[in-house]
Amino acid sequence: MAEEVGKGVGGTTTQKEAFEAMALSQLPRLYSLARRLVGDGAEDLVQECLMRAYRSFDSLSEPDASGRWLQAILVNIFRDGLRKDARRVVEVPVDDIDEFSLYRTIADEDPLPYSDSLHLDFLLAFGREDVYEVLNRLSEIYRVPLVLRYIHGFATKEVARMLQAPLGTVLARLHRGRKLFERELWTYAQETDLLQGSEAR
Amino acid sequence: MSERPIPCSEAVRQLWHYLDNALSPEDQAKVDGHLAFCRRCCGELEFAKELQTFLASHAVEEIPSHVKERLERFVQEL
């Protein structure tokens, strides 16, 4: 496949070269999304995504949307994999988590007594790997909408379309997912002594 | 005609949808009405914004160099 798609200063740009340039520029974002969806299987998921994307590169009508296009392909592959393994779907009764408020818990427990911006400093104590670990504690049905909506910035309607789920279901899972995420942030901070030394300045 | 005020529990439950503009105009007005007099829920709202910004700041992580090399080679060999 070496179809000519345009000419630059250096000469002809083929489809293959255009795909390569686009894919390489999107690798960090694509890999980050894959890692949050499947953890250790991220590399395989990215490879599968790149293969499918290459085969249907002609269907990409807006090059500016290439990042979103690739991420949507990756989520499709992930979603199809989920369907084959329905055992991973674990609902959590809403009453178990609805009463939890991380904002109030931080204010009541005051884990950083010398902080002037207690809540923000609590969040800033979490490094990238800590956030990754906390997200991994959530069941996939809550983690995936949360990752797509709030980390990767897809609109809620887009998330529903990508996951082929009703909008109401996605909204409910986002709500529970946020609550679970907040509770796990607190639990993780306690279990790992994350805040010890955060104030030592 | 004044809206019946909603309790903190209901306002907090709706805060993220409120930030996402995902509420009906009536529910949006109820949350606005609650926030107008409840300082604690204003704190909850500010924290919800901070948490959203915090999550969005984690969109891209660094690829381990050996994985990056393998993926780059994979793209070039397609």
Explained architecture:
The complex is a heterodimer of chains A (201) and B (78). By secondary structure, chain A is mainly alpha-helical. Chain A folds into two domains: 4-88, Rna Polymerase Sigma Factor, Chain: A (Orthogonal Bundle), CATH 1.10.1740; 94-191, Winged helix-like DNA-binding domain superfamily/Winged helix DNA-binding domain (Arc Repressor Mutant, subunit A). Chain A has nine helices and two strands. Chain A has helices spanning 15-38, 42-55, 66-84, 102-109, 118-124, 128-136, 140-151, 156-163, 167-191; strands at 4-8, 11-14. A two-stranded antiparallel sheet of chain A has the order 1-2. In chain A, a hairpin with a 2-residue loop joins β1 (4-8) and β2. Chain A starts with a strand and ends in a 10-residue tail after the last helix. In chain A, 30% of the residues are buried. The model of chain A is unreliable at 6-11 (pLDDT under 50). Chain B starts with 7 loop residues before the first helix and ends with a helix. Chain B is built from four helices and no strands. Chain B has helices at residues 8-19, 25-37, 39-56, 65-77. With 78 residues, chain B is mainly alpha-helical. Chain B has one domain (8-77): Arc Repressor Mutant, subunit A, CATH 1.10.10. The interface between A and B is large, with 41 and 33 residues.
